[in-house]
Specification:
The strands form three sheets. Strands 5-15-16-14-8-13-9-10-11-12 form a ten-stranded mixed beta sheet, with helices on both faces. A four-stranded parallel beta sheet has the order 1-4-2-3. It has a two-stranded antiparallel sheet with strand order 6-7. It is built from 15 helices and 16 strands. With 427 residues, the chain is of the alpha/beta class. The structure holds NADP nicotinamide-adenine-dinucleotide phosphate. The site of NADP nicotinamide-adenine-dinucleotide phosphate (NAP) has 32 residues, from β8, α8, α10 and α15.
Length: 427
């Protein structure tokens, strides 16, 4: 059954699944009240039609005709899937008064397409069953789409030596565009994610402002993208100093963007990943903080990748946790190439995400182990004190020679507000 009402009307038990059908939401209270289960922007009217209708350039029948012409057929199919799944779906928009409003035209169009509301043909069945996270999972998203300014990679199909597979679910493609994961036979795909300030720094480095959250301004698009990147990782690599400076942090998709926890979990299932990514902490000396929250969660599998001497020290500190493995990956330093191969071979990690910090990232780039970098550039300026501890930049602990400095190929630029989201390829 399809119903409709204003998003400002009280929520009622009989609403079933509440679907917001506005293209643009200007009233933040709609987000704050969590007034809907899923936002399907593509069921809203085109902004240009709406503007011309509002300023009287076109009349209501023309506005309705344009709406019928422009509305996403894919979104209507998805709506049908939601009705099948939840029984009752309520369409919501801001309009409180009766007609005219695109919401009413949407109900008419939908009923014309799916008379009776209960018949489902084979094609729809296939879409529902076959794609797992694609049509069935509901994505709340970051609150608006990314603007794709440049996509030089066709969504990721052209990675040398790797076969592209796993397109993103349709709802994500509508908001972010595609990002196809390459699959290599004999090695994992390694990607990194950072947020940097306008002046290239990753942290204020002062108590209460050490992590990336203050750099991005806790930006929802950045956090949602972090969630997506984590949701596609079999293993997440973190330096021991980042663990020390953010001991409360968990490197999981739902921890950074809980609103899409169910959709991230569905995506992991659809792509054949374990429920939670392996948490891998890299340390030279094995001096790991045992009180970090991550160790107290038995569902998380953890690897400490360190040197031979570091294993002894880490085991002494963490021995009481049964979910921790220890890997000796070198003498003077951790060989990150050997680590990637071991994670691939022994833990089945086809995808590895590095979340820094900058010292680990420097090691990774120097070791030539990085495929792609996802870099958020925040509009904030951080600066650097004349005296006192320097505030770290994207890469620390390694200095490249001018004639041998690594360069990357820019393969994607997206924008949301004043934040830029770059994607670059290193190998
Ligand atoms: N803006 C962002 O996106 C972002 C992301 C992550 C982190 N951060 C921030 O960055 C800061 C921490 O950065 P950081 O550079 O000091 O620390 P880090 O990279 O997290 O950790 C550095 C440590 O990792 C170990 N390590 C790295 N590469 C190694 C290798 N090849 N072999 C053996 N050990 C290796 C070493 O451990 P030992 O200590 O044993 O020598 C090294 O001291 C924090 O403030 C954190 O919040 C920001």
């Amino acid at each position: 059954m399809i119903k409709d009402k204003s998003v400002y009307d009280p929520v009622e038990e009989g609403d079933g699944h509440r679907v917001l059908v506005m293209r643009v939401v200007r009233d933040p209270s709609i987000f704050e009240r969590h007034a809907y289960d899923v936002w399907m922007r593509s069921l809203g009217p085109a902004t240009d039609s709406l503007r011309r209708w509002w300023d009287g350039t076109i009349d209501t029948p023309t506005f309705y005709a344009e709406y019928r012409r422009d509305v996403s057929r894919r979104a209507l199919t998805r709506l049908r899937a939601l009705e099948r799944r939840h029984g009752v779906v309520t369409l919501l928009c801001r309009e409180r008064r009766p007609e005219p409003c695109h919401r009413y035209e949407l109900v008419r169009l939908y009923r014309a397409l799916y008379p009776g509301g209960s018949v489902i043909n084979g094609r729809h069945k296939h879409r529902l069953k076959g794609i797992g996270g694609d049509e069935v999972a509901e994505w709340r998203g970051p609150g608006g789409p990314f603007s794709v300014l440049f996509d030089g990679d066709g969504g990721g199909a052209g990675h040398d030596g790797g076969q592209a597979r796993h397109a993103l679910p349709a709802a994500v493609r509508e908001s972010y565009g595609d990002w196809r994961l390459p699959a290599f036979r004999d090695r994992p795909y390694v990607y990194a994610n950072f947020v940097i300030s306008h002046d290239g720094r990753v942290s204020f480095g002062v108590p209460g402002a050490v992590g990336g959250g203050t750099v991005s301004g806790f930006n929802r698009h950045d956090q949602w993208l972090m969630g997506l990147l984590r949701a596609r990782a079999d293993a997440i690599l973190v330096g021991d100093n980042t663990l020390r400076s953010e001991p409360e942090h968990l490197w999981t998709a739902e921890a950074i963007f809980p609103d899409d926890a169910a959709a991230f979990a569905a995506l992991r299932r659809a792509e054949g990943r374990r429920a939670l990514p392996l948490q891998v902490f890299v340390s030279f000396d094995g001096n790991i903080v045992p009180e970090a929250r991550v160790f107290g969660l038995p569902d998380l599998r953890i690897v400490i990748a360190t040197t031979r001497a570091g294993v002894e020290r880490a085991r002494a500190a963490l021995g009481r946790y049964p979910n921790v493995d220890y890997l000796a990956m070198g003498e003077g330093t951790v060989d990150l190439g050997a680590l990637a191969r071991a994670l691939h071979r022994d833990y089945g990690a086809a995808t590895i995400l590095c979340e820094g910090g900058p010292t680990l990232y420097g090691s990774l780039v120097r070791a030539g182990q990085l495929d792609d970098e996802f870099l958020t550039i925040s509009p904030i300026l951080i600066g650097n004190p004349r005296d006192g501890a320097p505030r770290p930049g994207l890469v620390e602990g390694v200095a490249f020679e001018p004639h041998a400095a690594p360069t990357s190929q820019l393969i994607g630029v997206r924008r949301a507000g004043d934040h830029l989201f770059l994607r670059s390829r290193y190998r």
